[in-house]
Amino acid sequence: MHKTETGQAVHSFYQTLHFNEGTDAKQDAEAIQSAAIAKAQLLPTFQNALQQANARHGTVFEAGCGIGWLALSVEALYPDINLHAFDFSERALSRAHEIAQARSSAVTFQQCNLLDRASLGAADQADAFFSIGVLHHTGNFKAAFQNCLSLLKPGGDAYVGLYHTYRRAPFLAHFKKLSDAGKTEQQLRQEYARIDRRTTDPIRQESWFKDQVLHPHETQHTVQEVLDIAGPSYCHISNSLTGEQLPGTDQLALIEKRQTIIGEKNLTNTVYDPGFFMVHLRKEA
């Protein structure tokens, strides 16, 4: 399933990484008690799209579900959606199945390779798909994104969360500078913990550190790139940088480049900022 060198490296990384896991599946299941995760990670326009899909018992896919945190949170918010979650890590899917069982969840978890179109199933069947923090690790963002888009029915919604070319740069440059200066992995880990204070759980914090700082492969992207790859068959609904309004190409480029300044300011103020952005698109009916 993991034919490329990049694919093999990323797969091996997630097979050994306890990414976003708690002590056990029961603890993780208990942590997903509400829809807070979905509300935090999904723009309001996409939440509205999911609400509509929920009303008609629609089909929704998650591309790159990990251990199922977001998928299960979406289910808590929209229980009538027919939700399918994909990942290529057997380890992550094993934990996802355990958590789903503990929650009596109806989410379907299955293994797939986002670069293998045949493994995703039939085209034009989904009311929506979402993918947060995954497509930039595939080794071929464009192909993975286009494969996901092909799942959508006319009128279907696409939602992606990616590392931003400019917003991500200060974070990466900071840790590269430390690494080039000879800082040890333990010192890098301590610096990450100083910046990212979201949890005191040592297992979860270790997984976040490795994912953010030691990941074997990532790419960075822009809103404009997402729009260009999707093409004229998809209309912009919203994005996390400019909201529902999409400025002209030149103005958007300026806004995107200014993200570096925001990233630098957050780093200076010790505000955790991995350099993320989200885009919501809709396929023309």
Structure description:
Strand 4, helix 7 and strand 5 (about 150-165) form a beta-alpha-beta unit. Helix content is about 45%, strand content about 15%. The model has no long low-confidence stretch (mean pLDDT about 95). The radius of gyration is 18 Å and the shape is globular. The chain is built from 13 helices and seven strands. Helix 2 crosses helix 6 and helix 9 (about 185-195) crosses helix 10 (about 200-215). With about 280 residues, the protein is of the alpha/beta class.
For the secondary structure, the number of strands is 7
Give the termini distance in whole angstroms. Answer: 33 Å
Low-pLDDT stretches = none
Outline type: globular
Layout of secondary structure:
Layout: H1 5-16, H2 25-31, H3 36-41, H4 44-55, E1 59-63, H5 69-77, E2 82-87, H6 90-102, E3 108-111, E4 126-132, H7 141-149, E5 152-163, H8 169-180, H9 185-195, H10 202-213, H11 223-230, E6 234-239, H12 249-257, H13 259-268, E7 276-283
Relevant terms:
285 residues, alpha/beta, 7-stranded mixed beta sheet, 13 helices, 7 strands, 46% helix
Summarize the structure.
The chain is an alpha/beta fold and 285 residues long. The chain contains 13 helices and seven strands.
